[in-house]
């Protein structure tokens, strides 16, 4: 799979770095007098953050359906060019309404990348291989946090150039880079295994057979039928995974959007605050990749999540009670190492079979998680500086919800696996003894696999 890795992971990770950088750089830009120069209040600034996540969440599910119908090389590249243009124009606005419209449009066009790539990678890799690839891909978010701080400091030196302030140049430069990256992505992004032109016919066959041997029976291709989408919409796993995801994503966005402000208000200047975010994100990046590797090796994704969320909870408890700058800075390291490595999309992807079902289920889960960004955008209020107790308490509440949902999800998956081990979910297969009518009647085991997906009695969920 090294050939596949080299053609997929590096470039997609770079694209997500740009994606996360573009959505969160407003936090860096804020430190360079953006609010004062646009004449917006703290409440209006928070509304601009919030509206991004509303459009982002609304367009994730339809985007994943379109992705399956079109080629990833076409759809993802087009989205990147469009959101890059929105990002650039964001640096040209002169008032609150202009910033508000650009944030809405940015969210709409960015919506397709993360759920799309998550689903796309699940179509290439076995369940035991997916975690580390997803972790490397997502680690780009931590790199963007570190890089964003450094980049903001560098771009800020352009203040006044062309009559534009520092905060405007942050948006313009980052947006133009995204436009260029999106344009060349058409020739770099490869499509699904069954029609990947960079592989030989024999190599495509090997990739597809590996996936089918890993209980991904739809790897060779699947026609779109509404019953597949209906399964995703009606399955309990989808909705419980949405709660797990929300318990991780709200803290993640709160952390990413407000870390510079948290550090800035505690003691440090804008430039120093941006620089101090770099080591935090560097450690988060290492932790994310390490956890992805260990979770793939040991397979116990739920337990990893529980431990990581517990670490994040300790970090936020310290942030709530601390009134010391050094101790609070230590706490953000703990929080980052607990939040960023949490396994969200890989766990759901591992437990959903059927290309369209998995596509829609992943998009729903990620969409609901990202909608929590609208909440996280409003929890750190200017009247709470410098320690932001209310914001930290609400983040801690979400982490607690994530812990409960993670434990419940793992318990129910383990119980279902045990029922299948006991034969309670066996289907009636013609020519074979045993099985129960309530579980369905099929001409062959292959028919049962194809029709039932992860509900087939031989499928085992990843805990």
Shape: globular
Output mean pLDDT. Answer: 85
Computed structural class = mainly alpha
Q: What's the β-strand tally?
A: 2
Largest β-sheet summary: 2 strands, parallel
Overall radius of gyration: 23 Å
Question: What share of the residues lie within helices?
Answer: over 70%
- Give the percentage of residues in beta strands: under 5%
Number of helices: 18
Low-confidence stretches: none
Distance between the termini: 25 Å
In the sheet with the most strands, the strands line up as 1-2
Order of helices and strands: HHHHHHHHHHHHHHHHHEEH
Explain how this protein is built.
This protein has helices at 2-30, 34-38, 42-69, 72-90, 96-110, 113-122, 127-155, 166-188, 201-213, 226-234, 236-266, 270-298, 301-321, 325-339, 345-350, 355-376, 389-421, 445-452; strands spanning 428-429, 441-442. The protein has 463 residues and is mostly helical. The mean pLDDT is 85.
Observed structural traits:
463 residues, mainly alpha, two-stranded parallel sheet, 18 helices
How would you concisely characterize the structure shown here?
With about 475 residues, the chain is mainly α. It contains 18 helices and 2 strands.
């Amino acid at each position: 799979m090294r050939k596949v890795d080299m053609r997929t992971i590096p470039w997609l990770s770079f694209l997500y770095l740009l994606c996360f950088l573009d959505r969160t750089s407003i936090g860096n830009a804020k430190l360079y007098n953006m609010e004062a120069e646009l004449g917006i209040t703290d409440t209006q600034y928070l509304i601009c953050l919030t509206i991004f996540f509303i459009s982002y969440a609304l367009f994730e599910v339809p985007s994943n359906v379109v992705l399956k119908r079109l080629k990833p090389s076409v759809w993802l590249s087009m989205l990147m060019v469009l959101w890059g243009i929105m990002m650039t124009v964001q640096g040209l606005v002169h008032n609150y309404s202009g910033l508000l419209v650009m944030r809405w449009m940015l969210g709409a066009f960015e919506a397709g990348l993360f759920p799309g790539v998550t689903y796309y990678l699940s179509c290439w890799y076995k369940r035991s291989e997916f975690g580390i690839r997803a972790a490397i891909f997502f680690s780009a978010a931590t790199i963007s946090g570190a890089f964003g701080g450094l980049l903001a400091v560098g771009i800020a030196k352009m203040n006044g150039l062309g009559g534009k302030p520092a905060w405007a140049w942050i948006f313009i430069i980052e947006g133009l880079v995204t436009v260029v990256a999106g344009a060349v992505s058409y020739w770099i992004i490869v499509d699904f295994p069954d029609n990947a032109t960079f592989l030989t016919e024999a190599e495509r066959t090997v990739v597809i057979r590996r996936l089918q041997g890993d209980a991904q029976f739809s790897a060779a291709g699947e026609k779109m039928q509404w019953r597949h989408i209906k399964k995703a919409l009606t399955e309990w796993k989808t909705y419980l995974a949405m709660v797990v995801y929300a318990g991780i994503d709200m803290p993640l966005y709160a952390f990413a959007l407000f870390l510079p402000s948290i550090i800035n208000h505690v003691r440090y200047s804008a430039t120093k605050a941006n620089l101090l975010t770099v080591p935090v994100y560097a450690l988060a990046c290492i932790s994310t990749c390490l956890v992805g590797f260990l979770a793939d090796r040991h397979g116990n994704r739920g337990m990893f999540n529980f431990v990581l969320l517990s670490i994040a909870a300790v970090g936020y408890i310290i942030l709530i009670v601390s009134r010391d700058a050094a101790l609070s800075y230590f706490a953000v390291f703990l929080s980052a190492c607990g939040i960023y490595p949490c396994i969200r999309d890989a766990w759901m992807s591992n437990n959903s079979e059927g290309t369209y079902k998995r596509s829609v289920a992943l998009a729903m889960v990620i969409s609901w998680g990202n909608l929590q960004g609208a909440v996280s955008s409003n929890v750190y209020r200017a009247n709470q500086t410098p320690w932001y107790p209310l914001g930290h308490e609400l983040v801690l509440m979400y982490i607690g919800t994530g812990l409960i949902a993670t434990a419940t999800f793992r318990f129910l998956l383990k119980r279902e696996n045990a029922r299948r081990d006991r034969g309670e979910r066996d289907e009636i297969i013609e020519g074979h003894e045993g099985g129960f009518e309530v579980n369905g009647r099929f001409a062959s085991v292959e028919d049962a696999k194809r029709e039932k997906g992860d509900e087939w009695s031989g499928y085992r969920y990843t805990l």
